[in-house]
Amino acid sequence: MVTPDFHQTLLATMAEGVVVQDARRSIIFANAAASRILGQSLEELIGTTCDVEDWDATRFDGPSLSNADHPAALALATGQPAGPMVMGIRRGNERVWLRLQAMPIVIEQGLPRAVLVTFTEISDLIESKARLRDALGRLEQAHAAKQSLTERLAEFLGRQLDVSLETLAESEQRFRLAMELGTSVAFTLDLDLRYTWAHSCQVGFADAELIGKTEYDLFSRDTADMLCAIYRGVIETGVPVRQDVQVQSLAMSRLQYFDLIVRRLYDARGETVGLICAAIDITERKQTELELRQAKEAAERASASKSRFLAAASHDLSQPMQALQMYCAILAERQPEPGVKAKQCANQLSRQLKALLSMSRLDAGGMTVTRTRVPLGELLDQVAAASRPTAEAKGLRLRVVKTALVCETDATLMERLLGNLVSNAVRYTERGGVVVGCRRHRGRIRIEVWDSGIGIAKENLPFIFEELYQLNNPTRRADQGLGLGLAIVERIARILGISISVRSVFGRGSVFAVDLPCSYDV
Question: How far apart are CA 396 and CA 326, in angstroms?
């Protein structure tokens, strides 16, 4: 059974403009094509009346157009289909031409309740017709003024205005394709894949030189094999093809790239007589993409090298660092004043090395993700327990909202990510407290960390996940953090495939949200 949703989807995706008007000629439905053709959004169209004055509507020729003459009004009045009619309307500062017809919508017996109007923009065809009419007028004037040009004019008219059905059908297809693509490169091939027409080709040959030749006369063998395979596929299947191609012309030393479109060419009887093709030269774009890719690869290699160096250096320094802490502890027992200061410095240095080691391992891909089912209530309790002593020392309340939700993730990495968010919240909160909880949100699990701290100014939000970026620590005091906590959070989130967002009001506090994708088991 065909459902109303099917009909609505069909109308919404049609290439023709479709609107439905009620009995008062107000639009109650419009599809995307109607919005594009009429130059208004769907929200602007709904409720708009369709009186002639509202759209400055006119006929293409003949008497003035009135509301009663509009096909929609005729269909509503007579209960019969009306049109087609060619009508001009105002779209912004330009006049466009539409070919439209109307079909009444009758519910059971009685007068039509609404009318379905379909339309297609034919401005280009109208303009082409006017240009052809002007060209014919000028040719007739020239013919009358100079009888000696009769044969040449006849030959010209025979080439440009061949009125045979077959030539008209082919010309129409060329015209439609050129208008659709807005490109200056177009050509046609016969069934033997020989050029029959070419316009502004850019492969080192004049257009006239291409006529009668095949791709093997113009390109390297590999290029010709590739192009001919595409052409034969379209001839055999009838399915149009659009793809980027790399070509090597025999007349040019450099490679070229084209966005190539190929479709069948039909005669007036609907029989396939060859192919009509168009192409856009995208060589410059491809070259830019190649340079960007090479630069990106070089940057990634440099970053990986840096990360490996930091990982090796941090690892090599960890053992002497442990020894230094041990000696400082011994010194503190024997010489308390200098020993305690030395021990504090050693501890700060140790924390810095651990943070650098974490960053380098994350950047170098040294983390292994092991996903298991994790009860979030237990995980949040563990995270809060690690920061609770610091919070209590500052007189802050650190609260965890109970939850029974379960997700599938790496417990260690997730605990570390949330631990950094909670410790950051405690560090930058002087009064009030921090709340940690999770809930279902649009088919996902959202974990949130709320604080009543100093907040983050709007202009600083884009930078808070960068390395060594700190707020309210201009002197870079190590006891106030290193500026790596949120950078580590961002990298862990990237490894786990989850997203981090933040909302903040400067002076009032912040909310950091962790969204686990819907693929997680809830």
Answer: 33
For the segment 1-27, what is each residue's pLDDT rounded down to a tens digit? 445 566 667 777 778 989 999 888 899
CA angle 473, 474, 477 (to 5 degrees): 55
* Contact residues for 258 (Cβ-Cβ < 8 A; gap 6+): 185, 244, 245, 247, 279, 280, 281, 282, 283
Alpha-carbon dihedral angle through residues 207, 211, 214, 218, given to the nearest 10 degrees:
-30
Place of tokens 């060209």: 135
* Cis geometry, peptide bond prior to residue 84 (ω within 30 degrees of 0): yes
Nearest Cα to 472, choosing from 506, 446, 501, 518?
A: 506
- CA 164 to CA 152: how far, in whole Å? 19
**Residue 463: C-alpha distances to residues 352, 426, 429, 483 (Å):** 21, 20, 20, 11
Question: Rounded distance, CA 85 to CA 71, Å?
Answer: 7
The answer to whether the beta carbons of residues 142 and 134 sit under 8 Å apart is no
User: Can you tell me the distance from the alpha carbon of 354 to that of 332, in angstroms, rounded to the nearest whole number?
Assistant: 23
Note the pLDDT of residue 179: 47
**Tokens, residue 58:** 């006119």
Angle value at C-alpha 263, between 260 and 265, nearest 5 degrees: 135
Q: Higher model confidence: residue 311 or residue 294?
A: 294
Q: What is the rounded CA–CA span in Å between residue 261 and residue 277?
A: 6
